[in-house]
């Protein structure tokens, strides 16, 4: 690989971009990023210009030799890239508002990753990601794709299964947050603990072992859930009070998204209450974004503002920089990412994307072997993975029946007429972004 690195960020106008820039600046000595290309589409031009100007100020203030380019021409940017990161949102936040509003108005959880909203986000996103992969084959065939576009697990699997592209890593901030927050709860330094995660994006469990080889999982479960005000490790899920007897019985720490499965009624009631009083999470995010972009416009702001932590995805971008660093320098950092299963979890197909703890080498992620889950975890995991597989297939083929199977299979969607009604309404609402369904 060349000495100076070229990074291309698709969806560069995102409010998360300053964190990415900060992450590259922090690592500049090890990872000399000389070119950072921020790419967006016409509708995102204003945001791209605002956040791009801020990125340029950050680089200048840090005194590093890195050129920041802003462009609407993806193909121009991709030429000879070393790493491509994707953080795009097809249809922008307005599409997410529909993803959450339509299901909620029928009494269903919307949820942009694992609910009806997540299914539609996948339908809109998969074709775009596959197009990007086709461009990469032609313009930067040696590059790695680091994806943090949601639903991150499904997007990664689509690239592996349908894009025939192996150099892809899917990333989520939940394991990253867990490592930081839970080490603190145990009164330990995270470097002295080994976290082993296994499952799929937003549906994984983990164990913790300390440097003396002692399993600390049950102790953490007690600290986290053995009280009434269990704290969530992520900004977009407020409550984390699972049923104690259920969590205790797992002997593995669930992720915050388990609230949706283990406590569906409570999560739905909370979302409906919020929906009635303040609107959806997507609408809240729109307000946070507005506030962030007002800050980014300040010509004196040349560092990441603390308000960015109000977004659920905080720490995403910094983790992306570390993955790139670890691949580029064969650093062999331990990180949890979405990658091809290949037998790591014996309960899931080899071709699936799984979210597991890996060593990130110069050749990409090498997973720690996991084996099989107990029935406590296995059932739900296999249902959700099958649901993901069908959703990806529907995104590629545009087949109505396949999509309806995914809908009725998802445990957060009531099956039968409700599923069909919500699905039809979402199809109509997102028609413009779903050409495969409206040939
Ligand atoms: C979480 C998830 C992300 C998700 C985000 C939503 O942390 O891991 O996958 O995108 O939060 O945050 P937002 O602020 O957009 O609601």
SSE order and pairing:
Blueprint: E1 5-10, H1 17-26, E2 33-39, H2 45-62, E3 67-71, H3 74-78, E4 83-86, H4 92-105, H5 116-139, E5 144-147, H6 152-162, E6 168-170, H7 173-185, E7 193-200, E8 203-210, H8 217-225, H9 244-250, E9 253-254, H10 258-262, H11 264-278, H12 281-296, H13 316-329, E10 333-340, E11 353-361, E12 364-367, H14 375-397, H15 400-409, H16 417-429
Parallel strand pairs: 1-2, 1-4, 2-3, 4-5, 5-6
Antiparallel strand pairs: 7-8, 8-9, 10-11, 11-12
Bound molecules: 6-O-phosphono-alpha-D-glucopyranose.
Tell me what the structure shows.
The chain is an alpha/beta fold and 439 residues long. The chain has 16 helices and twelve strands. The longest helix is centred in the N-terminal third of the chain and has 24 residues, at 116-139. It is globular and about 55 Å long. The chain starts with a strand and ends in a 10-residue tail after the last helix. The chain binds 6-O-phosphono-alpha-D-glucopyranose. The site of 6-O-phosphono-alpha-D-glucopyranose has 12 residues, from helix 7 and helix 12. 6-O-phosphono-alpha-D-glucopyranose (G6P) binds at residues 113, 150, 172-174, 234, 236, 281, 285, 311-313. Substrate binds at residues 96, 150.
């Amino acid at each position: 690989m060349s000495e100076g690195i070229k990074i291309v960020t698709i969806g560069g106008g995102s409010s998360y971009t300053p964190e990415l820039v900060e992450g590259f600046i922090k690592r500049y000595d090890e990872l000399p990023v000389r070119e950072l290309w921020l790419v967006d589409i016409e509708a995102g031009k204003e945001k791209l210009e605002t956040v791009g100007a801020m990125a340029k100020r950050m680089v200048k203030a840090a005194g590093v030799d890195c050129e920041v380019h802003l462009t609407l021409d993806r193909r121009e940017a991709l030429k000879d890239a070393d790493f491509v990161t994707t953080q795009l949102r097809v249809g922008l936040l307005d599409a997410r508002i529909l993803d959450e509003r339509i299901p909620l108005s029928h009494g269903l959880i919307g949820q942009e990753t694992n609910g009806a909203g997540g299914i539609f986000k996948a339908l809109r996103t998969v074709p775009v990601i596959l197009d990007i992969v086709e461009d990469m084959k032609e313009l930067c065939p040696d590059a790695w794709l680091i994806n943090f576009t949601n639903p991150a697990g499904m997007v990664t699997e689509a690239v592996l299964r349908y894009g025939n592209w192996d150099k892809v890593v899917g990333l989520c901030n939940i394991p990253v947050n867990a490592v930081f927050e839970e080490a603190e709860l145990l009164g330990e330094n995270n470097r002295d603990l080994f976290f082993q995660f296994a499952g799929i994006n937003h549906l994984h469990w983990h164990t913790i072992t300390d440097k003396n080889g002692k399993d600390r999982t049950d102790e953490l479960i007690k600290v986290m859930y053995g009280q009434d005000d269990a704290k969530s490790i992520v900004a977009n899920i407020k409550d984390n009070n699972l049923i104690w007897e259920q969590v205790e019985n797992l002997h593995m720490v669930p992720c915050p998204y388990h609230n949706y499965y283990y406590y569906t009624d409570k999560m739905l009631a909370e979302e409906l209450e919020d929906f009635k009083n303040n609107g959806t999470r997507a609408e809240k995010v729109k307000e946070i974004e507005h506030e962030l972009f007002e800050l980014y416009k300040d010509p004196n702001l040349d560092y990441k503002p603390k308000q960015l932590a109000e977004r659920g995805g905080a720490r995403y971008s910094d983790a992306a920089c570390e993955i790139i660093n670890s691949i580029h320098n064969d650093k062999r950092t331990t990180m949890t990412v979405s990658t091809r299963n290949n037998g790591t979890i014996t309960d899931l197909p080899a071709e699936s994307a799984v979210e597991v703890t890996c060593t990130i080498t110069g050749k990409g992620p090498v997973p720690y072997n996991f084996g099989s889950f107990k029935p406590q975890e296995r059932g739900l995991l296999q249902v959700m993975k099958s649901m993901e597989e069908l959703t990806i297939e529907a995104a590629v083929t545009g087949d109505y029946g396949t999509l309806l199977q995914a809908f009725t299979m998802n445990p957060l969607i009531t099956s039968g007429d409700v599923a069909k009604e919500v699905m039809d309404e979402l199809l109509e609402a997102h028609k413009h972004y779903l050409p495969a369904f409206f040939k």
